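re: the backbone from monday

yeah here it is again, tokenized this time
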């Protein structure tokens, strides 16, 4: 009987304490977990409902990104790339080795291992008229432009190759071109 009175008293006391005003904030252990600020992935502030105009810090590039390639896929753009673009990577042994590896994966099936236009697809007559690298007036800028946009039957390889891999292939193609000219 004594225990029953004690239990009833504790339940009553707990009920009275817990029945306070719910509109006023109570003690919160981690307030940022209870009341988080909503963000929209499309750049709209969830609190105000206005677009958030976040601009990157000057001189920075987005994570995993490289300078934007803003030369148009036109004849004028190809001429501009040929005259203005320079390879930002040094022609080191490591860059040439990786360029050779990427060339073997993406280019050799058509252009051949030597860059003579006699790749396996050309030998099997799947594609005709694949150019020899010595047949055309090309430089680093024009090679990069063709990798980015493609030309004639060759499609763009910009989505398969990273920024550095593209330039490494350019180094390797230039090496093949000089080797063919000998």
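seq for it, each position gets an aa:
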């Amino acid at each position: 009987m004594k225990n029953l009175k004690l239990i009833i008293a504790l339940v009553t006391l707990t009920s009275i304490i817990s029945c306070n005003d719910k509109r006023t904030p109570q003690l919160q252990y981690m307030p940022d977990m209870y009341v988080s600020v909503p963000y929209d992935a499309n750049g709209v502030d969830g609190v105000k409902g206005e677009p958030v105009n976040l601009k990157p810090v000057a001189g920075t590039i987005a994570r995993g990104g490289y300078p934007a390639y803003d030369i148009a896929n036109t004849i004028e753009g190809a001429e501009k790339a040929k005259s203005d673009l320079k390879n930002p990577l040094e022609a080191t042994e490591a860059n040439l080795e990786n360029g050779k590896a990427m060339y073997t994966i993406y280019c050799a099936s058509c252009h051949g291992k030597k860059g003579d236009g006699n790749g396996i697809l050309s030998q099997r007559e799947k594609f005709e008229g694949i150019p020899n690298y010595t047949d055309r007036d090309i430089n680093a800028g024009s090679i990069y432009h063709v990798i980015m946009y493609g030309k004639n039957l060759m499609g763009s390889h910009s989505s398969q190759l990273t920024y550095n891999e593209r330039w490494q292939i350019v180094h390797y193609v230039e090496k093949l071109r000089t080797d063919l000219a000998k």
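The two ends are 109 Å apart (CA to CA). The mean pLDDT is 82.
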